[in-house]
TrEMBL record:
This is Peptidoglycan endopeptidase. One of its GO terms (molecular function) is cysteine-type peptidase activity. The keyword Ribosomal protein does not apply. It comes from Alteraurantiacibacter aquimixticola. GO terms for biological process: proteolysis. The keyword Glycosyltransferase does not apply. Gene3D superfamilies: endopeptidase domain like (from Nostoc punctiforme). Residues 2-136 form the NlpC/P60 domain. Belongs to the peptidase C40 family. Keywords: Hydrolase, Protease, Thiol protease. SUPFAM superfamilies: Cysteine proteinases.
Length: 136
C-alpha cells in the first residue's frame, strides 16, 4: 500500500508534459506550480485551496504558507520522502513549488520550458522549506 505522498507524487508524475499556464488549473489548458499541486491534490480525492493574486515574481511567500496546512500538509524536517512538497527560490523575488519524485528529482511546472517537467537531482535552487501530506 502506498503512502499519501507516494500517491501524490505518482499523480504529479502522470502530469509530466502538461502545458504551463500562469494561474492554470487544468491538465488540458495548463498549470503553474500552484495549479500542479491543486490538480494533484484534487486527483487524490482531496479538496484544495489555492492562493489568489500571486504573480511570477513575489516579494514574500509568508502570506501563502498557511495554505499549506489548510491543504493537508505539515512541515517535514527529516529526510526527504517521495511526495514531499518543496518551496524553493529560483531567483530574487521568485518562489516555486516542486514535488519530490521517487527518483530524488522534482516534478514541477517550469515556466521557461513551458510544461510540467521532472528535474533530476540535485536541486540547484535554495530550498526554503519542505512539507509532507498528512494521511486522510
Amino acid at each position: 500500500m502506498s503512502t499519501p505522498g507516494e500517491q501524490f507524487a505518482a499523480i504529479a508524475h502522470s502530469l509530466l508534459g502538461t502545458p504551463f499556464r500562469l494561474h492554470g488549473r487544468s491538465a488540458s489548458s495548463g498549470v503553474d506550480c500552484v495549479g500542479l499541486v491543486a490538480l494533484t491534490l484534487h486527483a487524490t480525492g482531496r479538496t484544495s485551496r489555492s492562493p489568489v493574486g500571486y504573480t511570477l515574481r513575489n516579494l514574500a511567500a509568508d502570506a501563502y504558507l498557511p495554505l499549506l496546512e489548510a491543504n493537508g500538509f505539515f512541515p517535514a524536517t527529516d529526510v526527504p520522502l517521495t511526495g514531499d512538497l518543496v518551496l524553493a527560490r529560483p531567483g530574487p523575488g521568485q518562489f516555486h513549488l516542486l514535488i519530490q519524485s521517487g527518483c530524488g528529482g522534482h516534478i514541477h511546472a517550469h515556466a521557461g520550458l513551458g510544461r510540467v517537467v521532472l528535474t533530476p537531482p540535485p536541486l540547484s535552487w535554495a530550498t526554503l522549506g519542505r512539507w509532507r501530506l498528512a494521511p486522510d
